[in-house]
Design a protein that fits this description.
- The chain is mostly helical.
- Helix content is 51%, strand content 12%.
- It has a 3-stranded antiparallel β-sheet with strand order 3-5-6, covered by helices on one side. It has a two-stranded antiparallel ribbon with strand order 1-2. The protein has a two-stranded antiparallel sheet with strand order 4-7.
Length: 260
């Protein structure tokens, strides 16, 4: 299966101070939003990963991406700024949710916070348009009444980055650990096969799977910074706890700490 799907943008504008904006997108009904807390089944995961391969594969390692001044890469200076923000945010996250966090997850969060600066700029030889927040709440799935099989929304974190970050972030958050473990090589293979269909070469599956392991830290990065940046709500707390526990478990299962 080969397809890329995003809602068509009819109009977009933003004020000079960037405080107000207008965005008019195609109505995706009767498609329905994914549920980050509930998770998804393997069939939905395969659709999402195949769609993601369309975003990545169409501009795989294309230097022309740098011609777009609105697309940025993480430079060493920016990585340092991220780390300066992530370290105190991690401690604030742990303090807020301490009673709900698995102690092993706290260890993972702190280990990553201490290594985030180098991780953010590592493996620069492979780069793509990176969605940055490719998860179920930002995906629309077809229903029995119709709609595109899957469509991605919420592109505010689009940048140039390592492809494994998007793949790992989705997989690490999309399913409960038992289900992910039983199907993850098959699902990462579906993403890899779709990449090859877009003309990507010299990228073996084992390289892809290793990049998937490496990219798992996108989960704690977005979870911690997201939780501490938005207004706290009951659903938000449930979502961030699901994201934290699933992504930290994936990091342990895949021994991703060893790749930092």
């Amino acid at each position: 299966m080969r397809f890329r799907s995003t809602p068509r943008c009819y109009y977009a504008d933003i004020s000079l101070d960037h405080d107000e904006f207008v965005l008019v997108l195609k109505d995706l009904a009767p498609a329905q939003q994914g549920d980050q807390i509930h998770g998804c089944n393997p069939e939905q995961a395969e659709l999402a990963l195949t769609n993601l391969a369309g975003l990545h594969g169409s501009s795989w390692c294309d230097d022309a991406l740098d011609r777009h001044d609105w697309l940025s890469r993480v430079t060493p200076d920016v990585a340092k700024l991220f780390t300066n923000l992530l370290t105190p945010s991690t401690e604030a996250f742990v303090e807020r949710y301490h009673s709900r966090l698995n102690p092993d997850d706290i260890v993972v969060l702190r280990q990553f916070a201490g290594a985030a600066e180098s991780w953010l700029v590592a493996r620069p030889e492979r780069f793509v348009p990176l969605h940055g927040d490719y998860r179920l709440d930002n995906l629309m799935f077809a229903t029995a009444s119709g709609g595109a099989p899957v469509a991605a929304v919420d592109w505010q974190t689009l940048s140039i980055g390592h492809p494994g970050r998007d793949v790992a972030y989705f997989m690490g958050n999309a399913m409960e650990p038992e289900l992910r473990r039983s199907r993850e090589r098959e699902l990462v293979a579906a993403y890899h096969d779709a990449l090859l269909g877009f003309g990507v070469t010299d990228y073996a599956f084992e390289q892809c799977f290793d990049d998937y392991r490496f990219g798992q830290f996108q989960g704690p990065l977005v979870t911690v910074l997201g939780a501490m940046a938005v207004i706290q709500t009951e659903r938000g707390d449930e979502m961030f706890m699901a994201m934290c526990s699933r992504s930290c478990q994936a990091i342990r299962d895949l021994d991703s700490i060893g790749l930092l």
